[in-house]
Amino acid sequence: MSRTASMERVTGETAIKAALTLDGSGQTAVATGIGFFDHMLILFGKHGLFDLTVTANGDLQVDGHHTVEDTGIVLGQALAKALGDKTGIKRYGTAFVPMDEALAMVSLDISGRPYLVFDAVLPGERVGQFDSELTEEFLRAFSLHAGLTLHVRLLSGRNTHHIIEAIFKALGRALDEATRRDDRIQGVMSTKGTI
């Protein structure tokens, strides 16, 4: 069974399309109009071994907020759809990723109970045309619509580019671990019988 999903969201502010294959090889095609954000989504796909396509047209003349947040919504929805009933998945994933002086930890639970803890100070306000504070907005939208309990913690770091890059790589790796199937798991990984 292919764990693939495509989602689309069109509002008065954005038009977003995304396709996600969980059992991929890290092939990506991303165009959001925000170069640094594209780079982060490409890293997420590559390090999570997800095949990922994202196209976004947003009101960038205002700023990047709507585009980044709505991309998080659509990717979260695609993840939830691709996971289906979550039978056989490991459910939990944790990754520590260094990027030069930066070290980020991402730990997550595909719990169906969305919650974000974002414990990272981003020293610079912008990286290229990307507002640094949108990192948290993306993660909040993604976790909410994917049904993830998501913890992000910065253990060290001074360079904002390095910090955000470490976070996105760690997110990909942790999610790859959590979405993997394990033949030993009967049904879903919960004593309740559902997640």
UniProtKB/TrEMBL annotation:
Domain of life where this protein originates: Bacteria
Pfam families: IGPD
UniProt entry keywords in alphabetical sequence: Amino-acid biosynthesis, Cytoplasm, Histidine biosynthesis, Lyase
Main location: cytoplasm
Record localization: Cytoplasm
Family, per entry: Belongs to the imidazoleglycerol-phosphate dehydratase family.
Name listed for the protein in its UniProt record: Imidazoleglycerol-phosphate dehydratase
Gene name of this polypeptide: hisB
